[in-house]
Each structure stands twice: as structure tokens, then as C-alpha cells.
Amino acid sequence: MVWIVRIVAVLFILSGILYVVRPNAAKSLIQFFAKGNRIYLAGIIRFALAILLLLSVHDCNLRWVIIAFGVLLILSSVLIFSLGPKKLAGLLNWAQRQPALILRMMGLIAIALGGILIYSA
Asked: In the structure, what pLDDT confidence band is assigned to residue 67 with cuts at 50, 70 and 90?
């Protein structure tokens, strides 16, 4: 089941590369999730990734890292469902207004997190 963790890590890395190369892609993604109740889709995706990570933890080298990622993803999905789209609209609008440099830095963070996941698997 280590391959599941590696796939999730590669998704983190690919999204980070996309944000570094094309920061407007991040703005488009934020705009997509800001419309209507689409933010709940982000919560479902985060929850599904968390479950996949936590189910794969027993085969990994650094289990505590995978568990930490899983717990953080679950907490973030619970937060999304608790706050809802109206309360998260301000945060999404703020994120969308950020300059390209900040979005690129967010992409670098995603790449680093993906690297940590691959190392931990």
C-alpha cells in the first residue's frame, strides 16, 4: 500500500509544479472552488486522501509523518464542512488576490510536502 502514499505525494508535487510554473492556474482553481457549494468537493477530496493515507500507514517507513498528514487532512476537511462556503468565501477571495510570488511559494511548499511524503513512504 506504499504506492498509494507515493501517488498522493506525486499529486502534491505535480500541483506544486503547476503553481510554480503557472500561478494563474492556482487562481483558476481557487475561483472554481469558490463558486456555489464546490468548496465541499475540496473537503471530500481532502477527506478521501486522508483515509487513503491512514489506510496505507502500516507499510510506510516513517508512520508518524503519514499519520500527521492524514490527521491534518481530516481536520482541514472537517473545517471546510463546519465553516461552509459563505464563511470560507473571504479566505478564498484573499487567496485569489495574492500576487504570483506568493502563489509560487505555495507551490514550493506543496512540492516540499510531496517530497516529505515520498521520503516517508
From this structure: very high
Give the global pTM: 0.84
Cell of 81: 464542512
Structure confidence by residue, pLDDT tens digits, 82-116: 998 989 988 888 988 999 999 999 999 999 999 99
Half-sphere exposure of 21 (CA within 13 A, CB side): 7
How many domains in the chain?
Answer: 1
Is residue 73 within 8 Å of residue 14, measured between CB atoms?
A: no
Which residue did the predictor score with more confidence, 121 or 82?
A: 82
Query: Is residue 36 predicted with pLDDT exceeding 90?
Result: no
Burial class (CB in 10 A: 0-12, 13-18, 19+), 24: exposed
Count of beta carbons in the 10 Å neighbourhood of residue 12: 22
Handedness of CA 67, 68, 69, 74 (dihedral sign): positive
- Residues 22 and 49: their CA atoms lie apart, in Å, by 24
Taking the C-alpha atoms of residue 28 and residue 5, their distance in angstroms, rounded to an integer, is 27
